[in-house]
Design goal:
mainly alpha, TPR-like_helical_dom_sf, Tetratricopeptide repeat protein, 16 helices
Length: 356
């Protein structure tokens, strides 16, 4: 049995905030409490309220502000001798690094956060940090290395009845099955994640689960209209909570669904929209994947083949730079699908799949 989802990253005087609180409201409350704590010289509270500010900025796509906020939270926690708060700040910084495509930095910060969480006796931040490490590896396509960790974290979350982390783990495992071609298992796991998140009132987790379901329904069943309906339901939540990143990925997925349905002009418009949204939040992974979808849509709409070939070559280099190891299959499939042919310079060590 799962209880109502909670938001352990909202701490100190901000524990009354809900997991479903609008990020604009979280930022306002966090900023106000942070200023009051600074005036009072309460370093521990500065660290805790600063964490909420950092997370609100990150989820709103405000990268520079998020970077400044998590570092300030860490310094305040260090000054206060609060090891667990230091771990939470490092978790936020590591999550931001992953969002920015800085995967080595993400692994380093999240690893430190997990260690400090254990030292500080905070099993929640330790779990969140290990989950962050697992998600980083999954995004890079290193399924063998992180698959067991996902399963371990899922078992722990189920045992403790933590709905939010159970949903996260289910979605991650489902995505790996989807990318490996096991669509039936992926559908079942995304469906379970959607059911648990709905019962636990975890609207963010529910929006991500609906996005995953829409993807599988589109591929496996060819049911374009149901997929679009699921994405529309998820988009309503994204807008209500100001989930900037989730909304951009929702739009990119809508582009994917429309492309599969041969509605190329509509797909082009959605990819362009997502590309602008990812660009505004400095999200290189999403930006590269939106560019790939846009290149394919434009090719279908009559773009010159040489221009498409150049775009795919550039994307291959970008995906390699980001560190998405399994992106080569996507680029190769795009070339084959569009009849572009293989790069005469030889194979490229790149690829990726859109996971979040």
């Amino acid at each position: 049995m799962y209880g109502k989802a909670s938001a352990p990253e909202y701490q100190g005087a901000l524990t009354t905030l809900s997991v479903n609180s609008s990020l604009v409201d979280v930022l306002a409350a966090g900023t106000e409490r942070l200023a009051a704590a600074e005036r009072a010289g309460e370093r521990a509270e500065v660290a805790r309220s600063g964490l909420a500010v950092a997370e609100a900025h990150r989820r709103l796509g405000q990268v520079r502000e998020a970077d400044l906020a998590w570092k300030a939270s860490y310094r305040a926690a260090r000054d206060a001798g609060d090891v667990a708060a230091m771990a939470w700040a490092l978790w936020s910084g590591g999550t931001l690094a992953r969002q920015r495509g800085a995967f080595p930095l993400a692994r380093r910060l999240l690893g430190l956060a997990a260690d400090l969480g254990e030292r500080g006796g905070d099993v929640v931040v330790r779990g969140y940090s290990l989950a962050g490490l697992a998600e980083t590896g999954r995004i890079q396509g290193d399924y063998e290395a992180v698959g067991r960790l996902h399963e371990q974290l899922l078992a722990e979350a189920r045992r403790r009845g933590e709905a939010r982390h159970t949903v996260w783990a289910l979605e991650g495992i489902a995505q790996m099955h989807r990318n490996s071609g096991d669509l039936d298992t992926a559908h079942a796991l995304f469906e379970e994640a959607a059911e648990i998140s709905a019962r636990a009132d975890d609207r963010r987790g529910h929006a991500w689960a609906l996005r995953g379901l829409a993807d599988v329904v589109s591929i496996r069943d060819g049911d374009t209209e149901r997929a679009l309906a699921l994405l529309s339901e998820a988009e309503t939540t994204c807008r209500a909570m100001n989930l900037t990143g989730a909304l951009a990925y929702n739009h990119k997925m809508r582009g994917n669904v429309l492309y599969r349905a041969a509605r190329y002009a509509e797909a082009r418009d959605l990819y362009e929209r997502a590309l602008a949204e990812f660009g505004a939040m400095s999200e290189p992974r999403g930006k590269a994947l939106a560019r790939l979808g846009l290149a394919k849509s434009l090719a279908r709409l009559g773009r010159d083949r040489s221009e498409t070939a150049k775009e795919l070559t550039a994307l291959a280099g970008e995906l390699e730079r980001i560190g998405l190891r399994h992106a080569r299959e996507m680029v190769d499939r795009a070339e084959q699908e569009l009849g572009i042919g293989t790069d005469p310079a030889g194979p490229r060590c790149v690829t990726a799949e859109a996971v979040r």
